[in-house]
From TrEMBL:
Annotated keywords: Metal-binding, Zinc, Zinc-finger
Organism name: Favolaschia claudopus
Record-linked Pfam families: zf-MYND
Keyword Protease: no
One GO MF term: zinc ion binding
InterPro entries: Znf_MYND
The protein, known as: MYND-type domain-containing protein
Family annotation (SUPFAM superfamilies): HIT/MYND zinc finger-like
MYND-type domain location: 49-103
């Protein structure tokens, strides 16, 4: 019950502010060239069995599919079950695919992992944690754009309800003795993704991106001499960046350029 009380008392300011503080502390340590190897600077995620949802902590060890190396299991029993049957779903949900159906596609994706790791680490903010994951929350936190209302184009819900559609979760909570407590936490974090775009006026480039001027992929320029060279070809892949006539474009800006032109927005 203590954890539920903590959840109910958690505010968006605490949640977003805590991660932003951690992101900025990481950026400051990197700037000094000395990131301590402590838990305070390791933003790995808790490894969880994709079948039973059990946290995998010692003495348990992570078990992966030997073919694709993608899903995580707490043991052989869950791995065998997932091969034949989809993971358990909430009542009323559509059953998902089995691992037997997903394994070939997973393998193709995992074979490209090294390439995308390289793309990520080419950016100053690109960082892999000790479990080989990338924290997009920490990346936004270091730039002060992790949050809901007031974060421009980055406006997004988070905390206990990271998704807009809670589906059958609300009906499940209605019959739970702790449902009222959890719904109170949901109410505090209720937010429409992209709410900052629903105002009476369009956001300016600065208001929308909320980044340092050098990092903003401007669409509107105060004068013609501020405009970059015109690019007439479509930017539809990461490799197209090499063809851009922007020799001074920093890596930290390139992902934003792509997000404006081709939808390749997040690594």
């Amino acid at each position: 019950m203590d954890s539920l009380s903590s959840l109910a008392s958690l505010t968006p300011e605490q949640f977003f502010g805590g991660i932003t503080k951690a992101g900025k502390a990481l950026a400051a340590a990197e700037k000094k060239g000395n990131v301590p190897k402590t838990k305070n600077f390791d933003f790995s995620v808790q490894e969880t069995c994709c079948v039973c949802q059990k946290n995998i902590t010692p003495p348990l060890k992570v078990l992966r599919c030997s073919a694709c190396r993608a899903p995580i299991y707490c043991g052989r029993e869950c791995a065998t079950k997932h091969w034949k049957y989809p993971p358990p779903q909430p009542p009323g949900s559509i059953p998902g695919p089995t691992h037997k159906e997903l394994c070939p596609a997973n393998k193709r994706h995992m074979e490209r992992r090294e390439y995308y790791d390289g793309v990520l680490k080419s950016f100053p903010w690109g960082r892999l944690e000790s479990d080989a994951t990338f924290s997009f929350d920490i990346a936004r936190g270091r730039f002060g754009v992790f949050g809901g209302t007031g974060t421009g184009y980055w406006s997004h819900r988070g905390g206990p309800i990271p998704h807009s559609n809670r589906g059958v979760l609300e009906s499940m909570l209605a019959s739970s003795p702790y449902g009222a407590t959890i719904m109170k936490a949901f109410a505090a974090f209720d937010h429409t993704d992209g709410a900052d775009l629903l105002g009476a006026r369009h956001l300016t480039d600065v208001q929308g991106w909320k980044l340092e001027p050098a990092f903003i992929p401007y669409l509107n320029f105060p004068s013609t001499d501020k405009r970059p060279a015109l690019v007439t070809s479509a930017l539809n892949s990461w490799d197209c960046l090499a063809k851009l006539n922007f020799p001074d474009t920093p890596n930290s800006l390139k992902s934003a350029v792509l997000s404006q032109n081709s939808g390749f927005a997040q690594v």
